[in-house]
Amino acid sequence: MNKVNLLNSVVVIVGAAIVFLGLNIGLGGIKTLGWQSTRDFVSITDAATFNAQDSHIRFIGGLWFGVGALFMIGGFAMRSFRSILIALSAVIAIAGLFRLSGMNTEVILSAEIAPSLVFELIGFPLLAWWLIASGKRDM
Fold first, then answer.
1. Taken in order 66, 68, 72, 75, is the CA torsion positive or negative?
2. Cα dihedral across residues 102, 38, 70, 113: positive or negative
3. Are 39 and 85 in contact, with CB atoms under 8 Å apart?
């Protein structure tokens, strides 16, 4: 497999993972941690506020689904989508930095968060770099 096909495959796989996570969040919502759990993990004390925030989380899940769809499409139409994929990779890295605003290292370094944070802060910048480098070869 040559480098271009490998990059395209990686982009499609990344997109599929993001699509799955978007569906998980968008269809699962806050109450059950999406598809991650079958149990409720929150007690609702203010139903109206909870329902509004759950709706916002589902919307964000839909956005995440859209990001994943763009990655998947980009894997098949790299020339047309390269700049979009680079920008999305940068946005994901910036969003990863926002995790640090919680100022809770116990959570950030936990098994539930650390792998995602590594992908966000290291993996996506590397993917952006790979996309940039592959674009220079195409010129």
1. positive
2. positive
3. no
**pLDDT per position as a tens digit, 43-64:** 889 999 999 999 999 999 999 9
- How many DSSP H helices and E strands does the chain contain? 6, 0
* pLDDT beyond 70 at 139: no
Picking from 86, 95, 36, the residue whose alpha carbon sits closest to that of residue 60 is 95
Is 89 in contact with 124 (CB distance < 8 Å)? yes
Q: How far apart are CA 112 and CA 16, in angstroms?
A: 20
Report d(CA 81, CA 75) in Å as an integer.
Answer: 8
Q: Are residues 60 and 50 in contact, defined by beta-carbon separation less than 8 angstroms?
A: no
**Closest of 34, 33, 16 to residue 71, by C-alpha:** 16
pLDDT digit string, tens, across residues 84-96: 999 999 999 999 9
Which among 98, 99, 77, 96 has a CA at the least distance from the CA of 15?
Answer: 77
Least confident window among 7-21, 37-51, 125-139: 37-51
